[in-house]
Structure formats: C-alpha cells, structure tokens
Amino acid sequence: MTRPKKKTGIYEAVAKNFVAGGVAGMCSKTAVAPLDRIKILLQAQHEHYKHLGVFSGFREIVRRENFLALYKGNLVQMIRAVPYAAIQFTAYEQYKKHLEESFEQSPHVNGFLAGAAAGVTAASITYPLDTIRARLAFQVTSNTIYSGIKHAAVRMLKEEGGLQALYRGFWPTMLGMVPYTGFSFYTFEKVKYLSMKYASHYLCSEHETNTGGLILNIPAKLLCGGAAGAVAHTFSYPLDVTKRRMQLAMMNPATYKYASGMLSTLRMIYIENGIVKGLYRGMSVNFLRAVPFAAVGFATYEVMKQMLNLDTGIKL
C-alpha cells in the first residue's frame, strides 16, 4: 500500500526545513563564536575579565590563552546549535501553519506565538548542551576544570545533584525564549513584508518564486535578520544574564548563592549591580553578537529554503 502523496509532501517539507535550519544554525553560531565567549565571561564576571570591555577582553583572551581560545566551547556549541536551529525553524513553520488554519486572529499574533513556541520547543530539547557549553567557555587555560563535553556532563551529574544540574537556569531560559523568539520571528517577517512592499525595487530579486511572490536579495535578508536580532535581544537580555549566572554558579564557591533559584538570582543581580551593570551587563557585546547572529541565521535559512525549493516569497 503506497503512502498518500499529501503525507509524503508534508514529510519532505519538514525534512527540508530541518536541513535548512541546521545549516543556518551552524553558520550563524560559527560567525559569532568569539563574541559568544566574551559575552559569557562578561555576564558571569570572570575574575580575569570582569574589569575589561569587549575589545580589550578579546586582546586579553589571546594574550592569556591563544587565538583559538576565542572559539573555546564552540564544538559543543555546534553539537547544540545544529539541532537547536533545525528544530526551531521547523517547529516555527509547523506552528505557524497550524495556527493559521485553526485561528483567525491577526497574522502578527500568530507569528509571535509560533516563534515563541518554536523557541521553547528547541530550547527544552537542547538545554543541557547549552549549560555544558557555557561551563567550557567560562574556564580559562590556567584554571581548567573540565577536559571536554563528556567530562563536564559526568562531573555535573555526580557532584551537583544529578540531572537538575544540567537544567539549572532552565526557567529563565524558557521565560526569555517567549519574547526572544517571539519578537525575533515576528520582527523578521514584519520587516521582510515592509521591505517588499515599500522598497521592492531595491531590496528584492528580479525573479519571482513559483507562487508568484517576491523574494528578498541577500543584503535585504541580512538587514531584516539583523533588525530581528536587535529587537529580540533587547527584550530578553536580563533573563539571559540570570540564566548564565545560574548555569555557572557552582564553578566558584563565591557564586554558589546564584544557584538557589531564578527570582532570587534576578533579585541579587539587581541589588548588587543594578540594571546597567547587572541585568544588562555585557549588552554592548550582545548587540555586536545579536545583529550578525540573527542576520546570518535568517539569511542562511531563507537561502537554503530557496535552494531546496521551499517557497519564501510573499504576495503583496
């Protein structure tokens, strides 16, 4: 008995979205890996780097360790980033499709909800790898605690209370994912639509898709993705700082207090360092990271969709 053609088409589209999302995740994470590491060191106020800025921090990493140290933790980041992005983009397409079929509210609401749900889904599945990656990126050559991914996972499971150690900081991540991925996908789709509607002569390719919709050129894709990253990170950044403090709390006796819970950690960061130097610490490097990260991610995903014959056009 042959499988219905419609079902086969759905599975094929999902598989193609998964591949496109995975490639997008790999490209975007690699592009900003050095910025990711310095962001973690600044957020958690590492003793060797807490007094430095972004560029002086880069110089200190190279001086104290070496150039490749800028990419420390990137292997586990790749192991996490590929499935994370693949799940996120695929889930977004599916959630958006089902919301449009089931509810008649504004497409803006559907886009935000689909993005938020996609982010929560992807983060829930890949969160332990994010915690391990943060631990590896936080340590320096002169004070190495973990020798690799497996060693970090085993030590955390044995010494820090089992599985909950890998999920420390999980709730601020989930709460942060709602505004982050919600605004990210919403902003990208909105700016993409406005670009096509009001500046199609400058920002769209000459050819059209198989459904008759216009498609953005590469610079426009990067522009829309960068705008999405800037908006999303502004809303979600304090929860990202809270998550990092909780993930790294058990690496130093002086920071054990941050492992107690999300609200208490958020409160302590605010009391001790305030808003600018606490909840938004490292925001400058985060913007330097967020814009190219989202730009490369969204642009690569859109290009991959075109290469795999998944329509990315919009009818105006």
From TrEMBL:
<feature type="repeat" description="Solcar">
    <location>
        <begin position="12"/>
        <end position="98"/>
    </location>
</feature>
<keyword id="KW-0496">Mitochondrion</keyword>
<dbReference type="InterPro" id="IPR002167">
    <property type="entry name" value="GDC-like"/>
</dbReference>
<protein>
    <recommendedName>
        <fullName>Graves disease carrier protein-like protein</fullName>
    </recommendedName>
</protein>
<feature type="repeat" description="Solcar">
    <location>
        <begin position="216"/>
        <end position="307"/>
    </location>
</feature>
<keyword id="KW-0472">Membrane</keyword>
<keyword id="KW-0999">Mitochondrion inner membrane</keyword>
<comment type="similarity">
    <text>Belongs to the mitochondrial carrier (TC 2.A.29) family.</text>
</comment>
<keyword id="KW-0813">Transport</keyword>
<dbReference type="Pfam" id="PF00153">
    <property type="entry name" value="Mito_carr"/>
</dbReference>
<dbReference type="GO" id="GO:0055085">
    <property type="term" value="P:transmembrane transport"/>
</dbReference>
<keyword id="KW-0812">Transmembrane</keyword>
<dbReference type="InterPro" id="IPR018108">
    <property type="entry name" value="MCP_transmembrane"/>
</dbReference>
<dbReference type="InterPro" id="IPR023395">
    <property type="entry name" value="MCP_dom_sf"/>
</dbReference>
<dbReference type="GO" id="GO:0005743">
    <property type="term" value="C:mitochondrial inner membrane"/>
</dbReference>
<feature type="repeat" description="Solcar">
    <location>
        <begin position="106"/>
        <end position="194"/>
    </location>
</feature>
<dbReference type="InterPro" id="IPR002067">
    <property type="entry name" value="MCP"/>
</dbReference>
<keyword id="KW-0677">Repeat</keyword>
